[in-house]
């Protein structure tokens, strides 16, 4: 997949950057000089729309708070600039599986007027038109005895803290299990491995050289995020983390199903790991619009960007850059 032409050569040399933007030739970059740099890097409109954010980025790099970026601070800033102008863009297509479109958890059956099939066409356009360095498809891939299935409630004991009992429990209720001691929402049986319901939707485009990653394979562990348990003391060693590390991924774009569950949790995990991340809004479906709005707010509050597919394609194909995504990266460098 070829990269867009982004005229990045001038940004790859710290000396060239200093020569161009150090207007008073004192070897430092003050805020006005840094702002001029950002105008060229992100564009006038992007800078004007996020002035407070840009000021905070400057303050993050100005670690001694003297109002200017010295040699050491400029070196750190240069790392940030290089990742901005030389992105490695990854599209993560979340759980576009039969059970969420036509099966046991089809969004059209949730009573909120949503139909997951509506995002198939825009996702396919995103896949066709985007110059992606890697495309990753995620799949729920559950064993028959998975802890999240309402049908399996009788298989495990509930903890005394559970307000819902086995006798009163209904689909979509939340219970507390004893072993393992976890709080769990009960879903209809879905995406059982090697069944039709777990297969990717037939009309979804599968691009060459893409990767498919399965989650939720342990019977006692629910996995809404493809990144697994990133808070584990053993360190995160998920399959997707290894792939992203191998290709030097910098920017993640997330779409698919569903907004309020796996898109939200995958996005929050990616942001926590320090990736610049955007959710492709018109390529992401939900079951409940009100819950999806809460998910969007949470993603934004944690540093994510919500963008249309048109905007995303301008970022990926045309060399445009997002100050919101860059701001999150700067915060994670501090």
UniProtKB/TrEMBL annotation:
Q: Report the Pfam families cross-referenced here.
A: EF-hand_7 (PF13499), Isochorismatase (PF00857)
Task: Look up the EC number in the record and give it.
Answer: 3.5.1.19
Domain of life here? Answer: Eukaryota
Query: Matching SUPFAM superfamilies, A to Z?
Result: EF-hand, Isochorismatase-like hydrolases
The GO biological-process annotations, alphabetized, read as: pyridine nucleotide biosynthetic process
* Matching SMART domains: EFh
User: Pathway involvement?
Assistant: Cofactor biosynthesis; nicotinate biosynthesis; nicotinate from nicotinamide: step 1/1
Record-linked PROSITE patterns: EF_HAND_1, EF_HAND_2
| Recorded GO MF terms | calcium ion binding; nicotinamidase activity
Keyword annotations: Calcium, Hydrolase, Metal-binding, Pyridine nucleotide biosynthesis
Domain EF-hand spans what residues?
49-84
Q: What class of enzyme is it?
A: hydrolase
- InterPro entries (UniProt xref): EF-hand-dom_pair, EF_Hand_1_Ca_BS, EF_hand_dom, Isochorismatase-like_dom, Isochorismatase-like_sf, Isochorismatase_Nicotinamidase
Family stated for the protein in its record: Belongs to the isochorismatase family.
Name the UniProt record assigns to this protein: nicotinamidase
Q: Which organism is it from?
A: Dinoponera quadriceps
């Amino acid at each position: 997949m070829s990269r867009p032409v982004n005229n990045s050569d001038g940004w790859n040399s710290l000396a060239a950057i200093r020569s161009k933007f150090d207007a008073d030739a004192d070897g430092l970059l003050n805020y006005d000089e840094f702002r001029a740099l950002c105008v060229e890097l992100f564009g006038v409109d992007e800078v004007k729309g996020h002035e407070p954010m840009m000021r905070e980025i400057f303050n993050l790099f100005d670690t001694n708070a003297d109002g200017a970026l010295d040699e050491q601070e400029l070196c750190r800033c240069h790392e940030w600039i290089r990742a901005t102008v030389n992105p490695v863009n990854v599209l993560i297509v979340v759980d576009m599986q039969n059970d969420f479109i036509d099966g046991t958890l089809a969004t059209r059956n949730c009573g909120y007027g949503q139909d997951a099939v509506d995002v198939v066409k825009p996702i396919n356009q995103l896949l066709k038109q985007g110059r992606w360095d890697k495309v990753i498809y995620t799949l729920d891939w559950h064993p028959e005895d998975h802890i999240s299935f309402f049908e399996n409630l009788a298989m495990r004991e509930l903890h005394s803290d559970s307000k819902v009992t086995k006798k009163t429990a209904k689909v979509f209720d939340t219970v507390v299990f004893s072993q393992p001691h976890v709080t769990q929402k009960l879903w209809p049986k879905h995406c059982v491995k090697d069944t039709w319901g777990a297969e990717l939707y037939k009309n979804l485009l599968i691009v060459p050289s893409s990767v498919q990653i399965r989650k939720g394979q342990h019977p006692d562990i629910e996995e809404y995020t493809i990144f697994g348990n990133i808070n584990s003391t053993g360190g995160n060693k998920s399959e997707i983390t290894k792939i992203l590390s191998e290709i030097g991924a910098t920017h993640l774009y997330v779409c698919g199903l569903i907004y309020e569950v796996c898109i939200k949790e995958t996005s929050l995990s990616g942001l926590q790991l320090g990736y610049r991340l955007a959710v492709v809004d018109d390529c992401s479906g939900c079951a409940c619009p009100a819950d999806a709005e809460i998910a969007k707010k949470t993603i934004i509050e944690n540093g994510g960007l919500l963008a249309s597919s048109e905007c995303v394609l301008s970022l990926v194909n045309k060399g445009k850059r997002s100050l919101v995504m860059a701001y999150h990266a700067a915060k994670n460098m501090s």
